[in-house]
């Protein structure tokens, strides 16, 4: 490790792909940046032409801020682009190598994957009456049936809404209700660190409180008899039994380029998550292009993205992007430390993974676990590494590059969001010098800027990150809430406001610092502070709550909750446990607070607004700062004492 720190300090060390990598890279010519910016629309039109269309578009872009139409008039189908187009040249090529947490492996060729997708698509359409535009919620473990369900929805033009399997019954119900889903696909359970997550029981609990739009539930039998599940007659059907007799062919729906392909809920600054809408043609154009460009994908690569399909990274870089490129994708069900902390390295070794894409939180955990888990495996198949989801500290970047990559794999640090649909800022691995901790340059075709508070571009230094021209995979709105789309992304600047702070250096490299709004990034997962606060105030003992992020060595940030108890309630360890449980029940374990700090009041302005800045400073162990605008300055000292006491107890 000391070598790593020394090399970090070595400013002369240059990180660039090897000559061999550069000479064989998909993108070798720097002029691509210039070509793309000179005529952006021509550039994107060319990328769209890499897809198979039933009908060509009439116009590349119609832009009426903040609404974009890309490739309008064109017709295509995403599942055709991920499957049918490969059935001539890659029929027997492996599409998915799936490994379960228990160690079993299931592989699908493009032909066998297409067969499964067609059978399910046919069944959804014919047996369950799912039509183009209907919503289907997928609440599933990371099993092949999840990827199959995504593609089957795309085939019949149903809009999928994948809900991450770590969300609670309440979160699931909110999302089913908001999207007005007609069908839900789940499983009897999933494995997580050797335990069974009872997805069907959670589904039952979500549906017991009423989801009137939902007509049917398909249940994949995955964990077998161990999970004793209840099937409601007339509503619940076994997935495999239902598709058993379906034909292998299901006519794909001809989708308009602008038809919604999926919605994916993400946290924002209110208590209610928003359903981000993505289009078919524009989204897939960028998914296909960016996967090839950023991961330098070749036909013989074995590509592994560790993200769950429940998040946008899994949508774009596990399913749509790699499959549209005809890649071989590894998909793993479980956690990196089961049965031991070398599971990922064992997967890379056994399946000869050549491209590996994961999150900084995982990288920092691997660093902490120690190199012995890594050195016992052969990782020489790797040739490219990627990271996503949160800022990566230079030390973790260099460790990733040197230890996992053996010093000879370029690292792409990719900045993007659920809303952007695909990667926006990163280096092209065969072209650019890499700077540890900096994501790099906007991808060819993407325009970005760091803006000051007045919306003026900053040439060097810090400000707010904005994407300054529409791009094909941009969100098309918030499901059922146009105003929220406008308010969140288009009211601060004339151009798209990403909600992140960033710096830009003299070479035009961006470093993304993190959220500047009330959204936390915990282990790469977005969590709205308001969502956690709403969960806490649902508890009978809580009068008010304020949630802030606290620095965390591994997860980047963890959640710290300040609460005011109602009169007569006592601050006890049992109550803390109940409040933490309340958040898990209301949102899911991913939003579990690291600690609860009780106080008699929260710092407020004279008009009663909570001053989170002060709470953030306390959580970050910084000077509290100016308290003169507070209506109740005396409370600050009490909170600091309570924080220190509680936090020591929590450690
Ligand atoms: C953060 C995940 C720094 C950022 C694809 C963004 C990053 C939020 C990076 C989106 C990165 C993502 N460097 N920060 N390379 N990638 N972020 O919607 O704050 O789950 O706004 O999409 O993650 O999270 P989301």
Count of alpha/pi helices: 21
The CATH homologous superfamily of the domain at 523-650 is called ANL, C-terminal domain
N-C termini distance: 26 Å
Shape descriptor reads: globular
- CATH architectural category of the domain at 523-650: 2-Layer Sandwich
Query: Any idea of the CATH topology of the domain at 523-650?
Result: GMP Synthetase, Chain A, domain 3
Total number of strands: 29
Largest sheet data: 7 strands, mixed
Q: Output mean pLDDT.
A: 95
CATH classification, class level of the domain at 523-650: Alpha Beta
Rg on CA atoms, Å = 24 Å
Which ligands are bound?
5'-O-[(S)-ethoxy(hydroxy)phosphoryl]adenosine
Strand content: 15-25%
Query: Percent helix among the residues?
Result: 25-40%
| Structural class by sheet pairing and helices | alpha/beta
Q: What strand line-up does the widest sheet have?
A: 5-4-17-16-18-19-20
Unreliable spans are none
Describe the structure.
It is a single chain. 32% of the residues lie in helices and 23% in strands. The chain is globular, with a radius of gyration of 24 Å. Helix 11 (281-295) packs across helix 12 and helix 14 crosses helix 16. It contains 21 helices and 29 strands. The chain is of the alpha/beta class. The strands form eight sheets. Strands 5-4-17-16-18-19-20 form a seven-stranded mixed sheet, with helices on both faces. Strands 12-11-8-6-7-14-15 form a seven-stranded mixed sheet, sandwiched between helices. Strands 21-22-23-24 form a four-stranded antiparallel sheet. The chain has a domain at 523-650: ANL, C-terminal domain (GMP Synthetase, Chain A, domain 3). The mean pLDDT is 95. The protein binds 5'-O-[(S)-ethoxy(hydroxy)phosphoryl]adenosine. 5'-O-[(S)-ethoxy(hydroxy)phosphoryl]adenosine binds next to helix 12, strand 20, strand 23 and strand 24.
């Amino acid at each position: 490790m000391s070598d790593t720190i020394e090399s970090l300090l070595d400013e002369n060390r240059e990180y660039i792909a090897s000559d061999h990598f550069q000479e064989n890279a998909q993108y070798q010519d720097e002029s691509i940046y210039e070509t793309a910016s000179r005529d952006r629309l021509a550039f994107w039109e060319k990328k769209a032409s890499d897809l198979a269309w039933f009908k060509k578009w009439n116009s590349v872009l119609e832009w009426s801020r903040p609404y974009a139409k890309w490739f309008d008039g064109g017709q295509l189908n995403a599942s055709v682009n991920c499957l049918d187009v490969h059935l001539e040249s890659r029929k027997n090529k492996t599409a998915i190598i799936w490994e379960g947490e228990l160690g079993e492996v299931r592989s699908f060729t493009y032909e066998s994957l297409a067969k499964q997708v067609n059978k399910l698509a046919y069944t959804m359409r014919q047996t369950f009456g799912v039509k183009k535009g209907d919503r289907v919620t997928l609440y599933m473990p990371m099993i092949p049936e999840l990827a199959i369900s995504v593609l089957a929805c795309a085939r019949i033009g149903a809009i999928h809404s994948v809900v991450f399997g770590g969300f609670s019954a309440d979160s699931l119900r909110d999302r089913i209700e908001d999207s007005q889903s007609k069908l839900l696909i789940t499983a009897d359970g999933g494995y997580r660190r050797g335990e069974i997550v009872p997805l069907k029981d959670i589904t039952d609990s979500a549906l017991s409180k009423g989801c009137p739009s939902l007509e049917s539930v398909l249940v994949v039998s995955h964990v077998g008899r161990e999970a004793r599940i209840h099937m409601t007659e007339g509503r619940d059907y076994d997935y495999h039994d239902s598709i058993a007799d379906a034909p292998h062919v299901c006519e794909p729906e001809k989708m308009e380029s602008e038809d919604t392909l999926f919605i994916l809920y993400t946290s924002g600054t209110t208590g209610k998550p928003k359903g981000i809408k993505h289009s078919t043609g524009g989204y897939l154009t960028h998914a296909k292009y960016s996967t090839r460009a950023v991961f330098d994908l070749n036909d013989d690569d074995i590509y592994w993205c560790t993200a769950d399909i429940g998040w946008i990274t899994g949508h774009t870089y596990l399913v749509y992007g790699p499959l549209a490129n005809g890649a071989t994708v590894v998909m793993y069900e479980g956690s990196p430390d089961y049965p031991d902390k070398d599971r990922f390295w064992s997967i890379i070794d056994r399946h000869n993974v050549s491209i590996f894409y994961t999150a900084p939180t995982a990288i920092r955990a691997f660093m902490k676990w120690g190199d012995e888990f890594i050195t016992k495996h052969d990782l020489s198949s790797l040739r490219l590494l990627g990271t996503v989801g949160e800022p990566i500290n230079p030390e973790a970047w260099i460790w990733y590059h040197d230890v996992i990559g053996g010093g000879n794999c370029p690292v792409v640090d990719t900045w993007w969001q659920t809303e952007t649909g695909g990667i926006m800022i990163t280096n092209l691995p065969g072209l650019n010098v890499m700077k540890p901790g900096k994501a790099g340059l906007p991808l060819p075709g993407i325009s970005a800027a760091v803006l000051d508070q007045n919306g003026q571009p900053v040439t060097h230094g810090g400000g707010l990150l904005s994407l300054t021209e529409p791009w094909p995979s941009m969100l098309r709105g918030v499901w059922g809430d146009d105003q929220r789309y406008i308010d969140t992304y288009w009211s601060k600047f004339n151009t798209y406001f990403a909600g992140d702070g960033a710096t830009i250096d003299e070479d035009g490299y961006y470093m993304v610092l993190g959220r500047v709004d009330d959204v936390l990034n915990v282990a790469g997962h977005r969590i709205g502070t308001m969502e956690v606060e709403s969960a806490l105030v649902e508890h009978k003992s809580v009068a008010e709550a304020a949630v802030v992020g606290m620095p965390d060595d591994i997860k980047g940030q963890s959640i710290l909750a300040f609460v005011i108890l109602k009169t007569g309630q006592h601050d006890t360890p049992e109550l803390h446990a109940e409040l933490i449980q309340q958040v898990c029940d209301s949102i899911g374990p991913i939003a579990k607070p690291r600690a609860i700090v009780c106080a008699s009041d929260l710092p407020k302005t004279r008009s009663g607004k909570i001053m989170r800045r002060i709470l953030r400073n306390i959580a970050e162990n910084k000077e509290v700062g100016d308290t003169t605008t507070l209506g109740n300055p005396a409370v600050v000292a009490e909170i600091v004492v309570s924080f220190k006491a509680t936090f020591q107890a929590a450690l």
